[in-house]
Amino acid sequence: MARYDNINEIKPNIDGKGLRIGIAMSRFNMEVCEGLLSAAVAALVKAGVSEKDVVIATAPGALELPLILKKMAESGKFDGLVALGAVIRGDTYHFEIVSNEMAAGITRATLDSGVPIANGVLTTNTDHQATSRMTEKGREAALCAIEMARLLKVL
Known about the structure:
Elements: E1 21-26, H1 30-46, E2 54-59, H2 65-74, E3 80-88, H3 94-113, E4 117-124, H4 127-154
Parallel strand pairs: 1-2, 1-3, 3-4
């Protein structure tokens, strides 16, 4: 990114101290979801978020995540939210419906509420792709939620 001497640039901040973070996690494809959750929580704690300031709510599947996230955002209890889940392609069109509607719902929840929601829901073709990406995706989503919460506080 270019730097400009006379322009006020807001720099990324991933200091989680004092932030309250909510996590909404799907229970479908639980092995992958647990991997995402473990990585996300570890990243939050490493960034300074206190374990007592992390709340985890689970849903049956990815399509239910937007409603949980909307309610969490409306509660006023969270500075940022993380969506975690795994939608793995099968033999039917259901994959596209779940992936697209889940992502649109998460986007709508964050825009309607003004609370940042990091989308850490994997959408993959195979179980192997999901398990190989779960740790990095969980970590990235957690850090994204922190960074966006800090950015919105500055803006």
